[in-house]
Amino acid sequence: MVSGIPVPRAPVAAPPILSAQGLGKAFGKFRALSGVTVDFPEGGITAIIGPNGAGKSTFFNLISGAVPPSEGRVLFRGRDITGLPPHRFARMGIAKSFQITNVFPHLTVRENVRVAAQARNVRVPLFRDRSAFPELTERAEALLGAVGLGHRLDRLARELAHGEQRALEIAVALAAEPSLLLLDEPTAGMSPEETRAMMDLVQRLAETCTLILVEHKMKLVMGLCRRLVVLHQGQLLAEGTPDDIRAHPEVRRVYLGKSA
Amino acid sequence: MSAQTTTPVGAAASPAASPAARPGAGRTGRWLALASRHRVALTLAFLVVFPWIAPYQALAANILVLGLYALGFNLLFGYTGLLSFGHAAFLGGGAYGSGIAIVHYGLHPVLALVAGTLLATLIAVAMGALAIRTRGIYFAMTTLALSMCVYYAFYQAESFTGGENGLRGINVPSLSLPGFRLDLLNPTVKYYAVLAVVGLAVWLFSRLLSSPFGAALEAIRENENRAQACGYDVRRMKLVAFVISGALCGLAGALQAIHLSIVPIETMHYSTSGQAVMMALLGGMGTFFGPFVGAATFSLLQDGLTTLTSHWQLFVGAIFIAFVLFLPLGIWGEVLARLRRAGW
Ligand SMILES: Nc1ncnc2c1ncn2[C@@H]1O[C@H](COP(=O)(O)OP(=O)(O)O)[C@@H](O)[C@H]1O
Ligand SMILES: [Mg+2]
């Protein structure tokens, strides 16, 4: 472990919504992540930060169920969900938006969210018309309005600007009515205005569900999140409140040192 | 994100830029939307008058059956995004199933259709269960390999299938149904009898596409990982799509056996699987009517070229390559794209 210095833990009253226990991932011989143990409290925003290549996306993929870990466990509300297929994570209320924009390119914006909302039902009828479920369309349109895409409903997803596609992906993720939303660098590649709008959206979302946000730009999240988890070279470097992290000597050395 | 912020750069850099834009979704004008709502009626209306346009009526029935084969294939290829190279096993399974039911068991033709479809469905369940574990080119190779296993099994079972010589003597001169009797030796009657079955399949197919299940299949085609992250059990849905696709192709095979009175062993050959790919691409993958256009194009080319040269396959191949290069949307896909651009 890089840090031998004990980190003062913020008092966590409620049981964690998600826990990573000794999570690790090896790609061949290369260990992209090892031995990461973190609890994520219910409610608010927890940010995962770290320089490029720190293993944030790898960690994100493990806790979101996109990739099975090589070692360790993932608990959701105390239940071991390690190795379950991705759709089971979704059904349990864990939604995610990937670092690389990940929508349904040749479907309309409305259909992107409608088909996502439809997935909440375990049974997908084979011979009833889609139009027999108007509540799904209404829900899709309401969500798209909330993320600022109410005027783009009939566009194909691929025709949207980059920032709009990211917002669309968040609407797609929200369609499943998740209790935990995981976002991997939602502002990657965005202009300053787009970034600001996205951060506003993130803040609004945190009022309705628990958010875990991966971000490498530390400044963006400092004022926003309740807790931070710092990864460095595939390991947990520190965790705590924004103040803890600002004061953490190791973090200052490897991370802030460069930008501050 | 918000209305004011539009970065045109972002759109170009989106990972969504895929080689062939699917004409199946997107903004459509009023007329195309109307046509899409009545796609079954329009397709059937065309097929009803088709024998009077086609050069001769036996060819029209060939095209009808091949169109159903391409339609079934298109469910997997055009709508689910899975490229199979093993669909000959389903066309052949359906053909042998109905042929054997008639030749060896003397079943009523309608029951023979059911038997053929069931046999193809069973083959599809077995092949699908193994193949959907793989993706992309591995999926194509797995289906190809499995269909070759099926081919050899039928080739070897000579006492049932006629082996190398094919299954002969599937004579269905007439079809007696409660209340009336159809003379299948009359090509016109035969065409419309086949159309009754194909029409039913087309209607079912359309219902399937407009169902929530059809929507989920399109989502899987568009982005398998995202569909899974939304909560869809992608593997299971792929298997269901695979089996339905196999059943539709099996029905086509069962009709073909009765129509041709023979099941050549080539029906199961992998070149027949390739034919499905060709017809789907010629017509326009992921379009509702495209498979029939593809089947007609393929059959007319084959019919025209065989009278001119024994190397017809060479020419079909060259024409196919030209299509892939210059008309990637296929004939019907291109027609739709142009109409859409013209604001229809
Ligand atoms: N699929 C993979 N195969 C091999 N190496 C990988 C793979 N994914 C990530 N890595 C490596 O793991 C390390 C961490 O990557 P990542 O988790 O994407 O970092 P971050 O998101 O913090 O920038 C990097 O060195 C990266 O090259
Ligand atoms: Mg990353």
Automatic annotation (TrEMBL), chain A:
Family annotation (Pfam families): ABC_tran, BCA_ABC_TP_C
InterPro entries attached to this UniProt entry: AAA+_ATPase (IPR003593), ABC_AA/LPS_Transport (IPR051120), ABC_transporter-like_ATP-bd (IPR003439), ABC_transporter-like_CS (IPR017871), BCA_ABC_TP_C (IPR032823), P-loop_NTPase (IPR027417)
Ranges for domain ABC transporter: 18-258
Gene Ontology molecular functions: ATP binding; ATP hydrolysis activity
UniProt keyword list: ATP-binding, Nucleotide-binding, Transport
UniProt cross-references to SUPFAM superfamilies, sorted A to Z: P-loop containing nucleoside triphosphate hydrolases
GO CC annotation, single: plasma membrane
UniProt record similarity statement: Belongs to the ABC transporter superfamily.
Protein name: Lipopolysaccharide export system ATP-binding protein LptB
Gene: lptB_16
Automatic annotation (TrEMBL), chain B:
Regions crossing the membrane: 84-104, 110-130, 137-155, 191-218, 239-258, 278-300, 312-332
Cellular component terms per the entry's GO annotation: plasma membrane
InterPro entries: ABC_transp_permease, LivM-like
Superkingdom, natural source: Bacteria
UniProt membrane topology term: Multi-pass membrane protein
Record has Nucleotidyltransferase as a keyword: no
Swiss-Prot/TrEMBL keywords: Cell membrane, Membrane, Transmembrane, Transmembrane helix
A Pfam family per the record: BPD_transp_2
Annotated localization: Cell membrane
Main location: membrane
MF terms (GO), sorted A to Z: branched-chain amino acid transmembrane transporter activity
Keyword Transmembrane helix attributed: yes
Region (Disordered): 1-24
The protein, known as: Branched-chain amino acid ABC transporter permease
Species per Swiss-Prot/TrEMBL record: Methylobacterium frigidaeris
